[in-house]
Amino acid sequence: MIDLLDARERMVERQVARRGVRDARVLDTLREIPRELFVPENLREFAYDDQPLPIAAGQTISQPYVVALMAEAAQIQPGDRVLEVGTGSGYAAAVLARLAARVHTLERHAELVESARSRLASLRLANVEIHLADGPHGWLDAAPYDAILVAAAGPAVTQALKDQLDLGGRLVMPVGERHDRQRLIKVTRTGANHYEEDDLGEVLFVPLVGEQGWAETASDRRPNEGRSFRATRPASTPDLIARAALPLPDPDDPAFAEVFDRFADKRVVLLGEASHGTSDFYRARAAITRRLIERHGFSIVALEADWPDAACLDRKVRARPASADPEPAFQRFPTWMWRNVEVEAFVGWLTAWNAERPMEARAGIYGLDLYNLSASLRAVLDYLDGVDPEAAAVARERYGCLTPWAAAPQAYGRAALSEGYSRCETAVVETLRDLLARRLDYASQDGDDFLDAAANARLVQNAEAYYRAMYHGSAYSWNLRDTHMFETLEAVLGTKGPDAKAVVWAHNSHIGDASQTDMGWSRDELNIGQLCRRRFGDQAALIGLGTHGGTVACATDWDGPMEVKTVNPSRPDSYERLAHDSRVGRFLLDLREGEISPVLRERLLEPRLQRFIGVIYRPDTERWSHYAECRMPGQFDAYVWFDQTRAVTPTTTASGRAGEDDTWPSGL
């Protein structure tokens, strides 16, 4: 047996208050009115579900949220006289009767008038009068009214209803097409012939039938069979997403990236991914980046990859001389993250595009991350050997304490906790300081090589701190890593000049604003997206990518072999399920204010779960290991959706050489 009192309380908290209704009198009234009395007996167990329900005469009882939303918008006070158009079962009239001094309510179906009178009488609500009448004309006998609420959509707010408002009176009514787009409108009378109008957002209601409303049709007279209950409530969130979504073709279609021209004026465009092993995400980012480079002057492609590994790609795409005795790039776990055919195709395109341009006009690839300590140590020393042998000798001495750990820096992290390796921290900081102090002299010899060396020196300094910090298990290691990525991006932008523009490829957990997720709420973590917003303001665009299902390249354990796993269907309480239920297979949703309706933005701001798959994916523990709460419109400026996705195709089967702790604690 369902506990209806408990269900009513949960309805108020979850369906109404969490969606933004704040009027305490409205919320308290919904707690008092037994909605189960206003629905057919065989449907009482569903009385507090988040949906309208069928009643007599082929009509429906509106969902509680709609009643609360309209009552709050009407700003009903205890002494007010209220007119309701569309009595239905009498539920909304009962709510209004508790809020106002007097309520007149109109209903065009005689059988509903009688049943509503009986229900209201049982609740001893003597301040309600029900009239059998068409709604568009209102009820002149009791006018003027402090508030008028219309529970059906008309082509416009009728003048008859506006005339029946008292000075300062509020009218709330859905206006628009019969069965499609409608807006909830609030009209306030400010003078004898003056009215102010506010748009409260998109809704979907049954039509207002009668003179000055819609003409009655056969469908208006049919019983409930075959009718959508959705017709008497605001459009569902998936419906609103479907309306706001900009459908996209396949990423390989040249038209895919055109819609992203809206971000062409940004200094930094950050492109995310919901996993590190999904082909669609890589191909989408490649297509968007290609257009931003070709059409809009972007020249920096910054990857969630180590600087020395990405530098190998940069030397290729910009035809720079290869470094002496280079270590093969992307050999560490997880190799498939960058050694895949999707990245290979983008690198091939960028190489060909650059070949037709002078060096100063070529777009480069740069790594932001800090895992590859050994390659960075070697890169700094090799550079100094070439430009300043004496400085190289000093650097070798300073780096001496790190050299034993270079191939397995996670072991240094363990040792540093107990054996006092603070001298390594001092050494790496001094080397970076000396390198930067000589920057003008070195840069005059080779600016690109100096940028490489400086970035690697910064990586050595921050990686040393990272591998020490991560064993403390605090947010400090995450924050150090993302701060390093942001500072590296800033350094590249600074080197390339004030007009330089960058595209960043990283996981959603890095590029979405952490302050709008439980990373920030619960763990005091920040990320590169949050730091970019602080630094660049609206010149930064944060774009997340997501999926409902398909396959993904991943591992089960750290340093484990790559597997192709099936992605679980998204959870019912997730943002991904809302996108899936929109039934638009591939789209861009611009989440910025002014780009989507206030109703949809407000609903999406309600915290929901969002899925994060890194290089590790464990479907059996997915809820706890791969979901976090977020507020999507705060987290991202836009969201790119692929309902079904497939795994990347690796170009190597090597498992890499990294130890089990190399990407701990995040793997993202």
Task: Give a structural overview.
Among the domains are: 4-234, Vaccinia Virus protein VP39 (Rossmann fold), CATH 3.40.50; 236-298 and 501-668, 3-Layer(aba) Sandwich (EreA/ChaN-like  fold), CATH 3.40.1660.10. Residues 212-233, 373-377, 399-423, 439-444, 466-474 and 653-667 have low confidence and may be disordered. By secondary structure, the protein is of the alpha/beta class. α8 packs across α22, α12 runs antiparallel to α13 and α16 (439-445) packs across α17 (447-469). β4 (102-107), α5 and β5 (128-132) form a beta-alpha-beta unit. It is elongated, with a radius of gyration of 31 Å. The strands form four sheets. Strands 10, 11, 12, 13, 14, 15, 16, 17 and 20 form a nine-stranded mixed beta sheet that branches. Strands 5-4-3-6-7-8-9 form a seven-stranded mixed beta sheet. A two-stranded antiparallel sheet has the order 1-2. It has 25 helices and 20 strands.
Apparent shape = elongated
| Full CATH superfamily name of one domain | Vaccinia Virus protein VP39
Strand content: 15-25%
Mean pLDDT: 81
Range of helix content: 25-40%
Major beta-sheet overview: 9 strands, mixed
Runs in which pLDDT lies below 50 for 5 or more consecutive residues are 212-233, 373-377, 399-423, 439-444, 466-474, 653-667
- Distance, first to last CA: 46 Å
**Main structural class:** alpha/beta
User: What is the radius of gyration computed over CA atoms, rounded to a whole number of angstroms?
Assistant: 31 Å
The name of the CATH topology of one domain is Rossmann fold
Find the count of extended strands (DSSP E, 2+ residues). Answer: 20
CATH top-level class of one domain: Alpha Beta
